[in-house]
């Protein structure tokens, strides 16, 4: 595993305390596919398909391998209760999960132990933790909850090793996302009320500019769309949600 020593790197706070508290209250329900995180359970397989393809493309590995991350380190930022960390570990990675809510990392650690997976979970602000660098850095549905997005992305980039791969996903700021992800989803109980604040959503153009300012190059970007026939799926339509890969220029 990467060096477990925790040191102070910066005092910049990027996660709003009320956001961490909101998700911390959902911790014990996170692994229930019919609970408050049901939408994430539906979204996770779609994201994992994109992630697996991105790993194969970036490292030109064996597409038939069941452990394409063998020998590589992976960091999931905003890991929640470990919904993505556990599949990354099963892909062979040495995985670390970071979350601002300690309730989430506690539940994540217990679930990983029960599943027989060796995953390190660390609570706290990414920029204040001396975690070293990682081959793969993932950050799913997090940037929209961050107050200082530039500082947060700088911290993400600092965690990325030379030749590494960053994968992010987030809702787009469109009328469609406001209607479906905020007003509709909360009214129907698909996500807990207060989960999303539409004005904090980031457009693909904005996120690209922010990543480029940290020295990264966006290498692929796809939408995550919904239809009654396909349900959630990777698409060219980025009006609802999108996922991207980036690397150092």
From TrEMBL:
Q: In the UniProt record, does the keyword S-adenosyl-L-methionine occur?
A: yes
Class of the enzyme per the UniProt entry, highest EC level? transferase
CDD domains noted in UniProt: AdoMet_MTases
SUPFAM superfamilies attached to this UniProt entry: S-adenosyl-L-methionine-dependent methyltransferases
Q: Which Pfam families would you find in this protein's record?
A: Methyltransf_23
Q: Which GO terms describe its molecular function?
A: 2-polyprenyl-6-hydroxyphenol methylase activity; 3-demethylubiquinol 3-O-methyltransferase activity; lyase activity; polyprenyldihydroxybenzoate methyltransferase activity
Q: Which reaction does it catalyse?
A: a 3-demethylubiquinol + S-adenosyl-L-methionine = a ubiquinol + S-adenosyl-L-homocysteine + H(+); a 3-(all-trans-polyprenyl)benzene-1,2-diol + S-adenosyl-L-methionine = a 2-methoxy-6-(all-trans-polyprenyl)phenol + S-adenosyl-L-homocysteine + H(+)
Q: Which pathway or pathways does this protein act in? A: Cofactor biosynthesis; ubiquinone biosynthesis
| Amino acids binding S-adenosyl-L-methionine | 47, 78, 99, 140
User: What Gene Ontology terms for biological process does this UniProt record contain?
Assistant: methylation
**E.C. number, please?**
2.1.1.222, 2.1.1.64
Cite the NCBIfam families for this sequence.
Answer: UbiG
Q: What is known about what this protein does?
A: O-methyltransferase that catalyzes the 2 O-methylation steps in the ubiquinone biosynthetic pathway.
Name by which UniProt lists this protein: Ubiquinone biosynthesis O-methyltransferase
Source species taxonomy:
Bacteria, Pseudomonadati, Pseudomonadota, Alphaproteobacteria, Sphingomonadales
Name of the gene: ubiG
